[in-house]
Amino acid sequence: MVKAPPDHTPMTVDSQDSSSFESMMPITSPNQLPIHSMRKKIIQTVFNNDCCIFLGETGCGKTTQIPRFLYEAREKKFKSVLNKKPHRNKNLICCTQPRRVAAISVAERVASEVNQQCGQLVGYSVRFDEAVSRQTKIKYMTDGMLLREALLDPNLRQYSIIILDEAHERTLHTDLLFGIVKQALEYRKKSKKNPLHVLVMSATMNVDLFSNYFNQAPVLYLQGRQYPIDVFHVQESQTDYIHASLITLFQIHRSKPLNEGILIFLTGQDEIDSTCKTIKHIVASGTESLEPILVLPLYANMTTMNQMLVFKQTPMNIRKVIVSTNIGETSITIPGIRHVIDCGCVKIKTF
């Protein structure tokens, strides 16, 4: 059993960058996001080209705001046509995400921004679950769901704009989608009916590679918002990264306010489940006189309902601790997280 010592001297850290978080102001409106200043440029670039590449820094707001920008611009230009033919699943804007939790959480966020329930104007589609209706015009979905739809309709005619987000995550599904979307783009361009616009987005990708693949597609760089971050590294090599992560967790728990959540990255379900059990046991034992902790796991092989628990508000005087695989790394923003502990290891499939 791992105990929480009052002071673990071997786990000393070295600060690489020192900054203060006191000046950080929370974003309360989408208009405060950095991407909002480039709204006109984004709309012009997308509608003036069949395909374009956007390289946007983390936190700029590309995943939540760009589909809204494009929908509102198209609505303004073709309002009479859209109101005259409100057919289900016509002229949809789709935005793909690599994981279920990202697709659902982003859809719910965008729906709340337009003051609607998820499943009305903004919806989502993931494996075994969807929230769409006749009014849905913006749909967030996993790569696998769009790939499944392409089996029935290779030209993806129900979509007028397809956004391939997190393009740097080169999974089998995403690579297949690139080929299918490129074929659909060329077919619909030749047919001159129901034109298709494709947008490839990422925070870290080889833009030249994607631009060349999509016939020299133009590239637009989107500036993000850089928050002050303190980065610490262990001074000595750790043979047991799970034990080291737990020690670091309880060091932070003893010294920081309870309203500051902690996110721990581990490599898989077994490690996460055992670590969550260990944390709960240490706190429940009462021998360390620790403040209460709400421990939540997050990994792919969980029900959607359990995954969404990480986004709920934590009760007062309880610290939120999330133990996650790298599915908590991209496209999702978990409220209240102020400290991240990365074990430095990840499981990656190679072929």
Automatic annotation (TrEMBL):
<dbReference type="GO" id="GO:0003725">
    <property type="term" value="F:double-stranded RNA binding"/>
</dbReference>
<feature type="domain" description="Helicase C-terminal">
    <location>
        <begin position="245"/>
        <end position="351"/>
    </location>
</feature>
<protein>
    <recommendedName>
        <fullName>RNA helicase</fullName>
        <ecNumber>3.6.4.13</ecNumber>
    </recommendedName>
</protein>
<feature type="compositionally biased region" description="Polar residues">
    <location>
        <begin position="12"/>
        <end position="25"/>
    </location>
</feature>
<keyword id="KW-0547">Nucleotide-binding</keyword>
<dbReference type="GO" id="GO:0003724">
    <property type="term" value="F:RNA helicase activity"/>
</dbReference>
<dbReference type="GO" id="GO:0045943">
    <property type="term" value="P:positive regulation of transcription by RNA polymerase I"/>
</dbReference>
<dbReference type="GO" id="GO:0016787">
    <property type="term" value="F:hydrolase activity"/>
</dbReference>
<keyword id="KW-0347">Helicase</keyword>
<dbReference type="InterPro" id="IPR011545">
    <property type="entry name" value="DEAD/DEAH_box_helicase_dom"/>
</dbReference>
<dbReference type="InterPro" id="IPR001650">
    <property type="entry name" value="Helicase_C-like"/>
</dbReference>
<dbReference type="Pfam" id="PF00270">
    <property type="entry name" value="DEAD"/>
</dbReference>
<keyword id="KW-0067">ATP-binding</keyword>
<dbReference type="GO" id="GO:0005730">
    <property type="term" value="C:nucleolus"/>
</dbReference>
<dbReference type="Pfam" id="PF00271">
    <property type="entry name" value="Helicase_C"/>
</dbReference>
<dbReference type="InterPro" id="IPR002464">
    <property type="entry name" value="DNA/RNA_helicase_DEAH_CS"/>
</dbReference>
<dbReference type="InterPro" id="IPR027417">
    <property type="entry name" value="P-loop_NTPase"/>
</dbReference>
<keyword id="KW-0378">Hydrolase</keyword>
<dbReference type="InterPro" id="IPR014001">
    <property type="entry name" value="Helicase_ATP-bd"/>
</dbReference>
<dbReference type="GO" id="GO:0005524">
    <property type="term" value="F:ATP binding"/>
</dbReference>
<feature type="region of interest" description="Disordered">
    <location>
        <begin position="1"/>
        <end position="25"/>
    </location>
</feature>
<feature type="domain" description="Helicase ATP-binding">
    <location>
        <begin position="43"/>
        <end position="223"/>
    </location>
</feature>
